[in-house]
Structure formats: structure tokens, C-alpha cells
Amino acid sequence: MGKADALSQIKEAEAKAKKMLEEAEERQRTIISSARREAVEKLQAAERDLRAKREAALDQERKALAVKRDELLRKGNEEAAAIEALAAERVPKVKTTIKKHFERAFDAATGTNE
Questions:
Q1: With left for phi above 0 and alpha for psi between -120 and 50, is residue 112 left, alpha or beta?
Q2: What is the DSSP secondary-structure string of 75-87?
Q3: Nearest 5°: phi and psi at 79?
Q4: How many CB atoms lie within 10 A of CB 66?
Q5: Each residue of 89-109: pLDDT tens digit?
Q6: Nearest-angstrom CA–CA distance, 106 and 12
């Protein structure tokens, strides 16, 4: 084997090494690109899940608040009706009492005591 053969083999070995290195770098870029894409997809999926869970929790709270609001409105309407009924019951007596006080004051002011 002469110098020319040795140099030829060295050049072939260097070319093969360079080609293997380029292929390895390409595989590395492909793997990194794929990993980044997967990471982005996982992050987006996690954000979608989080949004869905948050919306579900908010909907549940809205429903609970609506039930409480309806219950409070019902109780408030019942109390208002009870107050109105009591007021309607007391108005004639209050009118009579006010009329008597007014008549007494008027009688006292005019000097007519009957």
C-alpha cells in the first residue's frame, strides 16, 4: 500500500466521518424540532384543559349563586308580602287612632269638649 492509497483511504474516511457527522446533526435538529413541537402541543393541551376546568368551575359557581339569588329573592318577596299584609291590617286602626288624636287636638284648640 502506497502513500496514494493511504491518502485516498484517509480522504474516504474523512468524507465518511463528515457525512456521518452531518447526518447526526440533521437527526439532532429533527429530534430537537420534534421535541419542541411536542412541547408546544403539550403546553397548548394543558392550557386548553386548564381553561375548560376554569370555565366549568365558573359555571358551577354561577349556578350556585343563581340558586342563592333566587332563594334570597323568594324570601325577600315573602317578607315583603308579610309586611304588606301586616300594614294593610294595621292601617284602619292607625287611621282611627290618628283621627282621634287629631279630633282631641282640634277640640282642645277650639275649646269644645264634648
A1: beta
A2: HHHHHHHHHHHHH
A3: -65, -40
A4: 10
A5: 888 898 899 988 888 887 787
A6: 132
Which amino acid type is present at position 11? Answer: K
Tell me the average pLDDT of the chain: 92
The single residue listed with the C-alpha cell 277650639 is 110
- φ and ψ of 71, to 5 deg: -65, -45
Q: Residue 33 and residue 110: Cα distance in Å, rounded?
A: 106
Tens of pLDDT, residue by residue over 7-33, are 889 999 999 999 999 999 999 999 999
pTM over 0.85: no
CA-wise closest residue to 31 among 21, 39, 41, 42: 39
Contact 114/107 with Cβ under 8 angstroms? yes
3-state helix, strand, coil in the chain (%, to 5): 95, 0, 5
pLDDT of residue 66 exceeding 60, the answer is: yes
The per-type count for the chain, helices as H runs and strands as E runs, is 1, 0
